[in-house]
Amino acid sequence: MVAKIISGKSIRAALSYNENKVDQGKAELIWQSGFKKEVQRLNFHDKLGRFQNLTKRNKRAKTNAVHISLNFAVNERVDETQLNAIARDYMEGIGFGDQPFLVYLHKDAGHPHIHIVTTNIRHSGERISLHNLGKTKSEEARKLIEKRYGLVPAQQHRELYKSKALALSKVFYGKDDTKRAISNVVHGVIQSYRFTSLPEFNAVLSCYNVFADRGSRDSVMYAKKGLRYWAMDEHGKKVGIPIKASSIYSSPTLQKLELKFASKKIARKPNADQLKAAIDRVMKNKITSERFERALSTYGIDVLFRRNGEGRLYGVTFVDHNTKCVFNGSDLGKAYSANALSQWFLSSQTAGKAYRLSGSNERSQYLSPITNGTVGRFYLGKGNLLEELLKPEFDDNLENNELKRKRKKRRRKIQN
Questions:
Q1: What is the mean pLDDT of each run of 10 residues along the chain (416 residues)?
Q2: Could you tell me the sign of the dihedral formed by the alpha carbons of 42, 47, 48, 52, in that order?
Q3: C-alpha dihedral sign at 170, 195, 327, 238
Q4: In what order do the strands lie in the sheet with 228-232?
Q5: If DSSP codes are grouped into helix, strand and coil, which group holds residue 246?
Q6: What is the sign of the dihedral through the CA atoms of 226, 229, 235 and 239?
Q7: CA 38 – CA 263 distance, rounded (Å)
Q8: Cα separation of 1 and 158, whole Å?
Q9: pTM greater than 0.85 (yes/no)
Q10: Per the database record, which ranges form the MobA/VirD2-like nuclease domain (predicted)?
């Protein structure tokens, strides 16, 4: 079991979040403690009024809302009676047993989980300290509950999520539960890939039709370092309704991501040479940017080009799905920068070498996408696809000249 505690300044906001889920059919209020009415008879004003009766007793306390989620492993089956008992034991374990609280069963994620809403203001007006609550009392309560109810331990729970992240699949808006699909991709990418900036993070997410958005530079969200996640269509356009980072399991906010950037930069460093070796193999031949992308895909590498309105290449990012590392071209070295690649592609055109990926039935069988959800990776079937990708297109002028030469020979033979 994984426990997560979020403190806030608005008990109404915490309550409304869960009540909205109930209205949408994505959650259910399954238990209450400290309320005079039964669960079925409680309306929104009953719930909010009970909490506000306590928060008003300490107007100096800026933090008065506590929102807890208890998450269980994907393959665990916990019935409603057990969930209520677990919620009760957990609240007693962290010192909130006498506080009024509501337990909601959420049904909008790939794993079973409950949300608990309460306040840290006692009837006396005293404030319950939340300092290090997650590291002390919560951890103790979690371990006892795991043993008592035979639950999957938190560490093993995280390993299950990591293994699930290895089989990520693209988000298809309209076909999937959008929030669940986006949450799985975001969580999996954070667990598996090594990136050092938000653009690099987005480079990986884009492979799975997801985009992390900070908003425009002059927006309030940008100023406050807010972050929301969108699903994208096949053309890279945002679709549907965005999901706030704070509403996703593990809360992948910008602040949390930034804390990971430095460590991931160190972790990815040993894999740079492997990526450069693959790029070097492709760069032995002068080819267009399109064929460059296709050739790298045979090595399990996605390349994302950034161009301005005039089509000029000003940025390039490589996503190596083998080592799960992301690099900007300039981080690999000057020879792999956007400017160097732009000059290289230009020289390919200047040399008059046009390349294309054959669409014939014979050659198309070389390209066979892996179906386990891995992005941009292809099997090499009959022959060698990379050789086909790097093979120059037949020069029509040379062909015509050769035919003319043969015709002249035939004429000479006839005349002789």
A1: 89 92 91 92 94 94 92 82 94 95 85 91 94 89 92 70 60 80 89 92 94 93 94 90 85 91 90 92 83 88 90 92 93 93 80 44 33 37 42 40 54 58
A2: positive
A3: positive
A4: 210-213, 228-232, 238-244
A5: helix
A6: negative
A7: 49
A8: 9
A9: no
A10: 17-151
Alpha-carbon span 68 to 311, nearest angstrom: 49
Q: Which two tokens stand for residue 386?
A: 């990379």
Token pair belonging to 111: 């794993």
Q: Which domains does the chain have, with CATH numbers?
A: 2-153 (3.30.930.30), 178-252 (no CATH), 270-396 (no CATH)
Tell me how crowded residue 405 is: count the other CB atoms within 10 A of its CB: 9
Residue type, 251: S
Q: Which of 42, 277, 166, 170 is nearest to 51 (CA)?
A: 42
- What CA–CA distance (Å, rounded) separates 324 from 268? 8
Tell me how far the alpha carbon of residue 136 is from its chain's centroid: 30
Half-sphere exposure of residue 326: CA atoms within 13 angstroms, side-chain side = 23
C-alpha–C-alpha distance, residues 321 and 139, integer Å: 35
Predicted pLDDT of residue 384: 45
